[in-house]
Automatic annotation (TrEMBL), chain B:
NCBIfam families cross-referenced by the UniProt entry: nuoF_fam, PRK13596.1
Name of protein: NADH-quinone oxidoreductase subunit F
Pfam families hit by this protein: Complex1_51K (PF01512), NADH_4Fe-4S (PF10589), SLBB (PF10531)
Entry keyword annotation includes Metal-binding: yes
Broad class of enzyme this protein falls into: translocase
UniProt source species: Methylovorus glucosotrophus (strain SIP3-4)
Amino acid sequence: MLSQESLAKIDRELTKYPADRRQAAVMSALRIAQDEKGWLSKETVAYVAEYLGIPPIAALEVASFYNMYELEPVGQYKITVCTNISCMLRDSDVIVDHLQERLGIGFNETTPDGKFTLKEGECMGCCGGAPLFHINNKRMCEFLTKEKVDAILEELK
Amino acid sequence: MAAFDTPVQHRSDKETLVCLRTLGQPDPASLQAYLNVGGYKQLQRLVQDKVKATDVITQVKLSGLRGRGGAGFPTGLKWSFMPRYYDGTKYLVCNTDEGEPGTFKDRDIIRYNPHQLIEGMAIAAYTLGARVGYNYIHGEIWQDYEIFERALDEARAAGFIGENLFGTTFSFDLFAVHGYGAYICGEETALIESIEGKKGQPRFKPPFPASYGVFGKPTNVNNTESYTSIPWILEHGGDAFQALGVPNSGGTKLFSVSGHVERPGNYEVRMGMPFTELLDIAGGVWKGRQLKAVIPGGPSTAVMPAAAIMGATMDYDGLSKAGSSLGAGSMIVMDETTCMVKTLKRLSYFFYEESCGQCTPCREGTGWLYRVVKRIVEGEGRMGDLDLLTDVSSNISGRTICALGDAAATPVLSFIKHFRPEFEYYIQHGKSMVTGKAE
Amino acid sequence: MLNIEIDGKAVEVDHGTTIIDAADKLGIAIPRFCYHKKLSVAANCRMCLVQVEKFAKPLPACATPVADGMKIFTRSKAAVEAQKSVMEFLLINHPLDCPICDQGGECDLQDIAVAYGAPASRYAEEKRVVLNKNIGPLVSTDMTRCIQCTRCVRFLKEVGGMMELGMVGRGEHAEITAYVDKSVDSELSGNIIDLCPVGALTSKPFRYKARTWELTRRPSIAPHDGLGSQIEVHIKDGKVLRVLPREKESINECWLSDRDRFSYEGLNSPDRLTVPMIKHHGEWHETDWKTALEFAAGQLKDITNADGGEQLGVLVSPNSTMEEAYLAKQIAHGLGSSNIDYRLRQTDFRLDGKRMGTPWMGCNIPDLQEMDRILVIGSNLRNEHPLLANRIRKAVAQGAELSLVNPMDDDQLMAVKHKAICTPNDMVNVLAQILKAMSGLQRLSLCLPKSLNDLLETVRVWDNSQAMAESLAGLGKEVDLVSPRTGIFLGNIAQSHPRFTELYSLAEAIASLCGATFGILSPAANSTGAHLVGVLPGEHGLNAKAMLESPRKAYLLVNVEPELDCHHAAQARQAIAEAECVIALTAYKSEALEHADVLLPIAPFTETSGTYMSMEGRVQSFTAVTKPLGECRPGWKILRVLGNTLGLSGFDFDSSEQVKNAIFGGQKPSTVVWNSLNNNLRELIDIQVKIKSNVLQRLGEVPQFQSDAIVRRSPPLQKTRAVQAPVAAMHSQLLTELGLDDGEMVTVKQGVASVLLKAKRDDRLPHGVVRVPTALPVTSLLGDLMGEIEVTRA
Ligand SMILES: Cc1cc2nc3c(=O)[nH]c(=O)nc-3n(C[C@H](O)[C@H](O)[C@H](O)COP(=O)(O)O)c2cc1C
Ligand code: SF4
Ligand code: FES
C-alpha cells in the first residue's frame, strides 16, 4: 500500500520513540502516507494503523483531528490561505478573491483539471509575512501580492 | 541556507539579541555560526564539571526568566517541580507549536538559531535528569522543521547530543516531531497527547506533566524561547539576564509584531521597553494611519484601545497594569480603518474552529459565540446579543479543562468592553461604523 | 485518612478519593454525564462542577482528588450557576426529540435538565445534526443526541479491550463513530447502551417497543454461562422486551455480556413449542397435558418394564435448573435407570468417582482480578465467559502475568505473557513440561509422587513451558504460599478434551506445587449445580457419551437438542433416531427433535422458578417473571406430574421451593455447597503423556451464540458478525500440505459422515488442527468435538 521509501521514512520516525510506543509515530506516518498518496483514503489510514499495530479508529481519530491531513482527494497543489487576524489585517481577502477568480473555485473546491485545491487555513505562525499561503503543507509563500500569486500559479502550471 | 520568502529582516540597533544572537553570521542556523558566538560551551562546562543541578536552577531562578509560551510561569520554579529521584526515563519537551495568531517568534529561533535551543534543552535535560527530549514543531512551518532536523544531525555528529556526552555518563537524545494543524496542541498536555500519537486533547490537571507527562513519565515542558534563553543565562549569570529586563520580567523578549505596521517581524528587545518605542522599531502604523487598538500578546490576551497601550511598557507588570497581558509577546496592531466587529468575528471563528471538542462549555460555547457575532456582522444582530455574548463568554471562562476556553472568552469580553458603541452601531444599522458596509 | 466536608457534612475518606466518590459515599448527588465509576476519568462534560473553598474557579468533582480539610459545596450559588450553564451548553445542540426517543424516562440528560435547565432556550442558531452510524444489529444510534461524554469509547477500549469506537473530528464537529463502515463487534457491546447517558445509543431490538414507564421489572438470573449474572427482565403485556444487568459487584459488576442481554429475543421465537405433542404414525399431533403425560409415562414404563431401567437414558441440559435436574434424576432412579448425565459435551469420563467433590472455579469471581499469575488451559475465554475474561483483563492491566495453553490463538484482547498454542493432543505434553519445570524449580521443595516423577522423566521441557512454570511459581517475585494469588483454570475446551483426565491431573499437580488456586470454569449456568444435585451416572450407569455410543431404547431429554448439544452430533442424531421412545421436555420445536415421540413444552427461565448454581458455587433462585407461553409449564412441574403419573414416590412437591428444600436436605444451601465443592482428586490417576499421532485433529468449539437453545434463536445475536457460516479453518501450512486453497470447498469427514465446507486459512491455529465449530445444523452430521478428522478437496 505504501512504497518502500515511505515505509523506510516511517521506520525512521519510529526510532524516535520507545519500541512499545508505535502509536506515537502515527502523526508522521500519516503525513508520509499523505505525501505519497496526495490524500488519506480510508484504506490508507487503515494501512498505516495496521503498520503501527494500532486500531484503525485510533488512526482515524488523529487523521480527522488535524487540519493538514486530507481525508478527501485534493488537487495536485493544495493551496491553503491563512485568513486569520494578522493576515486579514493585511488584506488576505484580496488574495483569496484573486485566487478564487484566477482558479474559478471556492474554498474546499478543486479545479476541474485536478490541479488546484483551495483551502482556508488558520494561523500558520508566520504572521510577519502576511498575507500568505502554503502549498501542499510544505512550501510557505509570504508577502503575497496579486502579482506574486500570479507568478506562483504560473510556475505551478 | 534555505531560501525563504522572508528576508533576514530589518534589524534595529535598539534590539538586544539573546535568542537570535547568531543573526549577522553568514549562515546563522549552522553549527559553526553558533560555535562562533560561544555555543555549547555552557553545556560542556556543566557536564564536564558535574555542576550541581541545584546550582543551575538557582541561576535560572535568579534570571527572572518566565515562561515565554504565554503563561509567564517562572522557569526556575517549574524546573524545581521535576522529581529529582525517579527510576525510569524522564522527558523534556519543547513547545514550538506556536499557533496563537500573531505569534511567529519560535519559528525564527529554529530558523536562525536552532543550536542555541538544542543547547538550552540539553542543559535542561542535564539539570532535570531527562534522558529523551522532543521538540514539537508547528506543522505549517515545514521548511523550519527540516532546518531543525538538520541542526539535530549536526549536533549529534558533533557530540552535543546523544550517548555519553563529553565522555561522561550523561546521555540525551533529542528528536524533532511535528504537529499537523491544531492550535490546541500548543497547550502542553494536548501537545503531549499529540507526541504520543493521539488527538490533541488536553489532559485534566492534576496530575501535571512534571509527574505524568509523555508516556506517563515525568516531563518538563517549556517554550522554545524559554529554553533558548538558558545558555546565555548560564554564560552571563542569572543576574545579568535579569538586569536586561525590569523587575519581575527578566531578560529580553522576542516580540512578534504583525498587522498594520510598516515592518512586521520579530524584534528581540529588553523587557520593559515602552510600547511606543517597539512600535517605532516596527516602522510605526502603516500608511501613516492612526493607531486604533493593539492585541499585545496574542488573541488570548485582551485587546487594548490605543489610549490604553500608548503609555504602557512591554513587560508582564506593565501590560497587566494597562489592562491586558504580555502573553507570548504577539503584538497585533490595528489601525483606524479596522472594523472591530469583523475582527472579532474572525477571532471567534478561530476559537470555534480550534476547540478540541472534548469539554462541553468550550465545544458548545465557542460555536455559539461565533454564530452570534457572525449574525451581527451579517446585519442580523439583536439588541440582547451583546449581553448574551458577555454571558456566554463568562460561562465558558474558568469552567473548561484547558485555557482555550478562557482564551476564547477574552476577545469577546474585551472587544465588547472597549468598543461597545461600534458593536451597538452594527446591530442597529446592520453595517459597520468604520467601513460603512455589511458583509 | 482525610477529613473533608461536603455541603456541611463531615466525612472521612481515603487518600486519592475524588470529590464525587466522597459525595456518593455521603449520598449527596452531584450531576454527571461523563463520569462512570468503572471507567477512566475524562472530566469532559463539566456537569459535576462544584465550589471548593479557597478556589476561585469551580472544580470538576469527578477529577478532583480531595485534600485534607477541603470544604466542598455542591449546591451553593456558584456551584449551581456553573452546573446550570453547563446544562445550557449541553442542550443548545441537543435535539428536542424526547417524545420519540427510546431513552425517554431513563435519560440522565432529561432528568438533570429538569433539575438544572432554564425554561426557555437562549440559543437561536441552527442546531448541529450528526449523521447516524450503523454499528451492528444490537446497538442503534441517534448520533445527533450524543453529548460527547465518551463513555462508550472508553468502555470499549478499557473494558472491552479493543478500541472499536472513537471520537473523530474536532470541536463541534467531533463525533463518535466506528472506523468508517465497521460495526462494533465486542461481545460486551450492549453495555454501551446502558452507559450512554442520553438516547444516542439505544437497544436495536428494543427500539420503539415500549416506553420505560410501561415496563414491569423483575429480577432474574442469566441462564447461559457459568457466571450467574444478575439480570433485570423488563416486561410489557406478558412479553419480555429487554434484559438489563442488575448491579452485582461480585458477579457481573454492572455489566452484561451480549449473550445474556440479547438472548431474550429467543424467548419470543416462533419456534416456541406451546402445546404438548405426540407423534402417531410418524405424524405430530397436538394434545393436552394429561394425554401427553400419560402417553409418555406409559411408553417409559413399557420399555423399562420390558427391557430394564438400563434401557433408559436421561440427558439433562446443564442450563436446566437444579430443581429440574433433581426431579429428572428422581425419575431415572425411580425407573431403575442410573444412566443420567448433564455433561453433554464431555468425552473423557475417567475422572468419574475419583474427585472429592463438586468441581468449581476454586475461588470467587472477584478474586480473579486480584491474581498476579494466571494460567488458563483450553479456553477461548472471550467466547466462553465474556465477563470472566474481563476480570482477567483487569488483572492483566494491573500487571498480572497471563499464560495460555490452547489449541488456537484467538485474540483475547489482553496481553498474554506466555502461551503454548498446540494441538489438543500436545496440550497434555505441555502441561507435563510445566509440571516438570515446576518440580525442578528449586525454591519449591515439594516433590511429586514417584509414579508421576517417573512419567515426567521422559518429558523434555521447552523454553516457553519453563517460562510459564517460572511465571506461575512467581520466580523473581515474592512468593506467597499462604494466600496464593496464582490461579490455574480449565476452560470449556479442556472439559470436552478427549484427554481431560490428563489435563486435569497435571493441572491439579501444578497447582498444588505452586500453591495456586485450581478451578474449572463451568461452561453453563447450572453445570456446577447439576453436579451437586447428582445428575451423574450411578455405579453401573452410563455417562452422556456412553448413552449415545451404546444406544438406549428410551431417552428422556430435558432441555436438550441432541445433535447440537452433545459431543458427538452424528452419534446423538442416530441414537435418537433409532430409539423406540424419546420423551423431550423442550421449549422449542426443532429439527433436532423430529425423531422424538413426545414433546412436552417446558417453560424457559423467564416463565419458571428455579435455582442455578454458578461456577463459584453461588446458589441463586429466581421466580417466573412472566406467565408461561400457551400451554408451557415449568419443567419442575412437568417432571413432578410425570413422576406422579409414573406412580413413583417422592414427587409430592407443590412449589420449586419445596424441591430446592429437598435438594439441600433442609439445610442452608451455602452449608451444603461449601461442604461439597472440592476439585481435589482422591487418588492419582494413571496418565499417559505422549501419544504419537499423525492424524488431523478437529477443534470443535461451541460458538458463543450457539451455546444453548435460547441463544440459538435470538435473531439479533444471530445477525452479529460473530455468527459466520461455519468453515474448516486451518493453518496456511496445512492448507498447502493438503493442496488446498483458501476459500475452496472441501469435504470434511469424521467417521462415516461428511459435510461440505469452505476451507479457511487461519494462522492462529497450530499445525495439525482443523477447526470446525459445533452446535450448528451444518456440522451436526459430524462427530467428536476433538476427534480425528479428514479434509479433502470437494
Ligand atoms: C490554548 C493554548 C495554546 C497554547 N499555545 C502555546 C504555544 O503555541 N506555544 C507555547 O510555548 N505555549 C503555548 N501554550 C502554553 C503551554 O501550555 C505551556 O504553558 C508552555 O508551553 C510552557 O512553557 P513556558 O513555561 O516556557 O512558557 C498554550 C496554552 C494554551 C492553553
Ligand atoms: S477548553 Fe476547549 S480546547 Fe481546552 S480541553 Fe476543553 S474543549 Fe478542548
Ligand atoms: S495570522 Fe496568518 S499566519 Fe498568523
